[in-house]
Write a structure and sequence with these properties.
single chain, Glutaredoxin, alpha+beta, binds glutathione
């Protein structure tokens, strides 16, 4: 059984929960990080010297980095619809995941930490405003891409790229701030939310999705 280390309030842990659901991977999860067991504990550092969640242990293999874990799960379950074999198609999926992990993720940190988590290190209104501007610019990039593809980040079908990007978009809508109108993002996420609620996009193997995973996909990500 795959073991997932990390608390479910973490966006990066939620990526793994969502991916497990997509591929029908059973797992057990332990709360680490955040308000739970400290990732400074030696037991955790032995698994991940970087000290961040999520970490998984699967068949004796230990892996860290949420996007890597998401790709691992798709590959392990031979879900070439989620992560294509064709090098060019695969690279397109990966480039959107890399963009999420680097540019997109870094843009929203100041606004999210300041406005939602109320973290004292991000209390400066100038830092928050600068982050909001960068975040909006990244959302414009996504808006243009979604206009081109119709619905999903890397093309016409759902792929693993939509997991990190979908969760980041969730934060955009849930953060209390002014937002420019982004019609394609709005339409795509509305239909994704509807699908997630009725279980249309996941559980293709007929598996009933657990409440924890539905939570990972649908609830306001504001803790
Ligand atoms: N690049 C890493 C980032 C992981 C990360 O930043 N994790 C945060 C939670 S979202 C963390 O472990 N923070 C320390 C803690 O929660 O104690 C990944 O994608 O897995």
């Amino acid at each position: 059984m795959l073991k997932l280390y990390g608390h479910a309030d973490s966006i990066n842990v939620r990526k793994v929960l969502w991916a497990c659901d997509e591929v029908g991977q059973d797992y057990v999860r332990e709360d680490w990080g955040g308000a739970y067991r400290s990732t400074h504990e030696q037991a955790f550092r032995a698994l991940n010297p970087v000290g961040l969640v999520p970490v998984i242990e699967d068949g004796g293999k230990v892996l860290r980095e949420s996007n890597t874990i998401v790709r691992y799960l798709a590959a392990k379950h031979r879900r070439t619809d989620l992560l294509p074999d064709d090098p060019a198609a695969r690279a397109t999926v990966e480039l959107w995941m890399d963009w999420q992990a680097t540019e997109f993720n870094n843009a929203w940190r100041g606004a999210f930490m300041g406005l939602v988590r109320k973290h004292p290190d991000y209390a400066d209104p100038d830092v928050i405003r600068a982050s909001q501007r960068e975040w909006a610019a990244m959302m414009e990039v996504l808006e243009s891409q979604l206009r081109r593809t119709g619905t999903f980040a890397a093309g016409p079908g759902f792929t693993v790229a939509d997991i990190p990007i979908g969760l980041s978009v969730n934060r955009w809508f849930m953060t209390p701030m002014e937002r420019p109108a982004l019609p394609a993002v709005m339409t795509c996420s509305a239909s994704a939310r509807r699908s997630a609620r009725t279980g249309e996009t996941a559980g293709r193997d007929g598996r009933v999705r657990g409440a924890s995973t539905a939570d990972a996909r649908c609830t306001p990500d504001l803790r």
